[in-house]
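Troubleshooting log. The previous structure file for this entry was overwritten by mistake, so regenerating from the original sequence record. Sequence copied from the archived sheet and checked twice against the printout by T.R.
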Amino acid sequence: MKELTIKADRIAEVDAVVDALCHPDSYKAVSHTPLHGEDMPSREKLAEIMQRLRAALFPGFYGPTQVRLESMRYHLAANLDSITHMLAAQIRAGACFSCADFAQDCNTCARTARDMAIEFIQKLPEIRSLLASDVQAAYEGDPAARNPGETIFCYPSITTMINHRVAHELYMIGVPLIPRIISEMAHSATGIDIHPGATIGRHFFIDHGTGVVIGETCIIGDNCQLYQGVTLGALSFPKEADGTLVKGIPRHPILEDNVTVYAGATVLGRITIGEGSVIGGNVWVTHDVPPFSKVMQRS
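Regenerated output below.
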């Protein structure tokens, strides 16, 4: 009898918790109900898409280790066909989650998603070219690198830039949500946080990488190098009359070509770091820096 009483008390306690969690005041800020009954975007599917894209962009490094020229075209075509179908499904899921001016009506969502996936696939040659320049920058920028292939296999900068180059193109096409998920996948793996909206030129390298933050409206030129702990962020956040943050305005730094930013530096606001400049470690920069300057701590 005592055991039955204890069990009944536990059931009552659980019921009380269930009632509390089901109360609108508790769940309304954290729940999501699909507007059209569509599935949520899948991190597992997006991880598979990224793995397939790595195999397409870096043959022999990812996916099948033996790549024969005579069969490359066949395997690449099959892989890209799978990527297109999988990506279209995830774009549609992200659109249904966001449901913000994605298509004229729900009946056109699937076609719009597939058109976006095909448009992205057409960007792959340029993405590969950019990534090849990033690999070369990593090899040339780190004396510890024995060969470019080592940077592809091992360096968090290359892992991050693969995701960023992909996410940025999707972002520029207008794909909702999916670019941010892909960026955050790399952030979780490497500790490097690059918003997919950031524009980054050729031959880019982040040495070591941990703790780097690059904001949405950053523009980084060619041949730039950052070290660990660098922040390229916003200085202030203007607000609307109702107190909400103004979205989409340029608020992050511009780095012109051939800029180096050393470890722990914080560069804030819509300022320009001129071509060929060097920003020393642990400095705080909130004003424009002329070309070919050096900004250092006072000794």
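The chain has a mean pLDDT of 90. Archived copy saved in two places this time.
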